[in-house]
Amino acid sequence: MKALVYERYAPDDDYAKILQIKEVPDPVPKANEVVFRVKVAGLNHDDIWGMRGKPLQIPLPHISGSDAAGEVTAVGDDVTGIKVGDRVVSHGNLSCRVCMSCTSGREFDCKNRKVWGFQTGPLWGGYCQYTHLPEVNVAKIPDNVSYEEAAAASMTMMTAWHMLVGRAKIRPGQTVLVMGGGSGMGIFGIQIAKLYGCDVIATASANKLEECRKIGADFAVDHRKEDWHKEVFAISKEIAKDKSTAPGIDVIFEHIGGSHWNKELTLLKYGATLVTTGATTGYEANTDLRHIFFKGTNVLGSTLGTKYELEDGLYWMSKGKIKSIIDSIYPLEEAVQAHTKMLKGNLFGKILMRPD
After folding, report:
1. 163 plus 295 within the same structural domain
2. Is the pLDDT of residue 281 over 70?
3. Prediction pTM value
4. Same domain for 168 and 99
5. Domain count along the chain
6. Would you tell me how many other CB atoms lie within 10 Å of the CB of residue 181?
7. Which positions fall inside the Enoyl reductase (ER) domain (predicted)?
8. Is position 216 within any domain?
9. How many CA atoms lie within 13 A of 172 on its CB side?
10. Which end of the chain has fewer CB within 10 Å, C or N?
């Protein structure tokens, strides 16, 4: 079968030097696995980390791709819930399923957890014509959700759902600040918060503010302005007048990191929550601890999510309450252009690739 393969790293982000279309053996399912023909797969930032060989060196030769959707073509002898012809999407959190974390519903905390298509291999990911996963790591796609929509939602929607619903436990009427609302994560963060009846303030670069409003944000603020946080607080004061509550933010959806951290903390109400899953502007953040201990702030870490959370999100997609935003679709042969576009960040929504 055809696959997008690299056999060495590109720490300088010169993807043209390493990415190749190659013929690799077709997968044969183990007893607990399904094989599916990949219709479309979505790009994630972990693709870039993998090609750089940092923050960790992943197996080589490598096939990336953590979000893939397609049609099942073969199943292993022990597979009972999936059949040939089913439409499925990957649940990329591979865990042992038997440790205390897994059996208590916290598979994302499994010590043996790996992100499929990032840490797996050699030659095991979604950027190929056929791929394989354990039955427990695929979810059926509802009839009225397309392959493209499912692939664009797989990791980012699940992670956003886990952040807001699983970890922050958002409630109707709260004021939620979605940082980076124009990103793949932020797009779903906005929609999930609105699904739960929250007032949503999104931040984004100036050219993405209107798009954030179109998908549900009540307000949108340019976080590249030096005093963006003051504008957010002023908005929260107006929201508070209508609710007769204190100004400020109840929940901050955070995946940006270093450069905005302390400004975010100043916006939180007493007893409020900041939930974080990333650090695209840097891992190190100086923290003014007064905003945490004095205000009783909840700072929650979050990563990926459960298959159940993925299926919850897909259900609401099937009801038209959440939608994927797709920026562009490339053939596998144009993977260099696709990844370069993602690296530069001039997009709104997910970039997808088709292997055929």
Report:
1. yes
2. no
3. 0.93
4. no
5. 2
6. 30
7. 17-353
8. yes
9. 2
10. C
